[in-house]
Amino acid sequence: MKELEVILLAAGKGNRMNSDLPKPLYKVGNQTSIEKIVKNIITFTDDPIIVIGNDSKKIIDTLGEKFTYVIQEKQLGTGDAVRAVKKSLKNKKFAKDTIVLLADMPFISQETLKNIHNIHKQNNAILTLGTITLPNFSGDYELFSHYGRIIRDENNAIKEIIEEKDASENEKNIKETNVSYYCFNTNWLFENIDLLENNNKSGEFYLTDMVKIAKNQNIPIYSYNIPDIKEGMGFNTQEQLKIIQKLAEEE
Q: d(Cα 66, Cα 47) in Å, to the nearest integer?
């Protein structure tokens, strides 16, 4: 049985991009964002699971049919996307651990994914996160201001992730951000994914709330603080995409 599963969430429509093109298909350098990410993923698995929306035929046309695709019928959040995997592939024998990441964060490196998984394995963990700590939220770092904040308790243990739109002003000042790279124990993930609720301002099921669920079960949450800030950069607007494309040109 293989050691690691990878789920790539690519169903987001990117409404703020003001375009019909699925967000993962924007060019970053000489490749689309999703092609750049898949190139790194296939180091870990030759069969990643890619979650797409109903209108994502263009993604299959770009990547080819050699991968496993799961359709997320409605855009109900990242947690719902993972739930769609559980529902669609209920007869699949999954690997012990599963990494989940987003298809609009093109700078993720093989080294970072390895480091997250190594910390996860060393601690026999249930849940391990990739985080990035910012010096501030100005200039190119402004795009991180929309990321969830890592809430830690008095012992510096991760307690919760608060999405920016649900955060208080004090919480928004926290500089450690969630960059949506997760490693889960697969059995635990699928046994608990249906506990997610959507009582938030977006009415969506956030995968980040798995942290709260783990904490309520007294499960320790581990993290890897990614040193290269660029690896946490994603895009939701044309302006943010320009920043990403400029960085890609400098590589």
A: 8
Residue 12: per-residue pLDDT: 79
Superfamily of domain 4-250: Spore Coat Polysaccharide Biosynthesis Protein SpsA; Chain A (3.90.550.10)
Q: Which of 28, 35, 25, 32 shows the shortest CA–CA distance to 242?
A: 28
pLDDT at residue 96 is higher than 90: yes
Does the reported pTM lie above 0.85?
A: yes
Give me the residues paired with residue 177 across strands.
132, 149
Q: How far apart are CA 96 and CA 117, in angstroms?
A: 11
Q: What is the pLDDT of residues 208-232, one digit of tens each?
A: 999 999 999 999 999 999 999 999 9
Residue 169 exposed, middle or buried by CB count within 10 Å (0-12, 13-18, 19+): exposed
Structure tokens at 152: 């830690």
